[in-house]
């Protein structure tokens, strides 16, 4: 079925804003500016403040939800379901996971390349699959286990590419790049826990996705904003990346932004892109399919990689392409994309119909039949 113009716009919005989200954060990390009290020029290394900005973008999804709801209620025949009452604190545990994972990933983005950052986020497939088996009682089919195995292989290839490539320099030594890669993978474990918590406790309440994202963002924004206060006094030495050597120096960040307004532009791009990306992603799932959303999410890695090469943020290495395609194949198998492709092949379609008819005759007393002959 051909896409409508609206569906094309949604797909383009998701691809573009998803790419801008990572690229704008990396752009901000590359700026050098003086800090407070006339300190020397230093890199804008403020991952926790950037995470606060990301949550601010998610909070805006809540505003979008109520705008859409208000517009729908003005119609003669409203199409949206009535807003269900739910306990907002159900979103607190996944919000804490989101806050922790996001902060770790912004720290990692300071250490590794933007393309490796995006590729290694594919590790979430591994941990989501394993945790869903352990805590949700889900049974993975053969193709999903193969997808997890391929994802592991892809991660190894991407890590090897960072090890042998020239994407590290005097500012980011090889040990820092590999540390950044490992931090991204650790963050994906936390993201997987977040997804399992959402599926187990949140989704059963039938909360609108935009409302869910906005509520989680509100918790993350409030908690992390308050945590910036003690972080200002926690000494961590050179790890902090700021003149005072503390965990997060928000005042130093604001001073740098005032001196270098382009940093504000980069942060604004990050905030707006995460808002539009969440809206577009949810709309793509609703208007087209979840599989299309997965494919678009994978394609933005290519956009990020091409832009990073064009502006000189990293150097070309063939292993990255190989790693990307292995990760893409693993994600496709895990999410069942191969079923849609095989179902369109005449021989597989005929086989599915024959199996369906045979199972219908054998299980005529059952209400539903689940047949997956093309795993």
From TrEMBL:
InterPro entries: EmrE-like, SLC35_F1/F2/F6, UCP036436. SUPFAM superfamilies: Multidrug resistance efflux transporter EmrE (SSF103481). This is Solute carrier family 35 member F6. The lineage of its organism: Eukaryota, Metazoa, Chordata, Craniata, Vertebrata. One of its GO terms (cellular component) is mitochondrion. GO terms for biological process: negative regulation of mitochondrial outer membrane permeabilization involved in apoptotic signaling pathway; positive regulation of cell population proliferation. Its main location: membrane. May play a role as a nucleotide-sugar transporter. GO terms for molecular function: transmembrane transporter activity. Keywords: Membrane, Mitochondrion, Transmembrane, Transmembrane helix, Transport. It is a multi-pass membrane protein. Interacts with SLC25A5. It comes from the Eukaryota. The chain crosses the membrane at residues 48-69, 89-108, 120-138, 145-165, 177-197, 218-241, 261-282, 294-313, 319-337. It is found in: Membrane; Mitochondrion. Signal peptide: none annotated. The keyword Transmembrane helix applies. Belongs to the SLC35F solute transporter family.
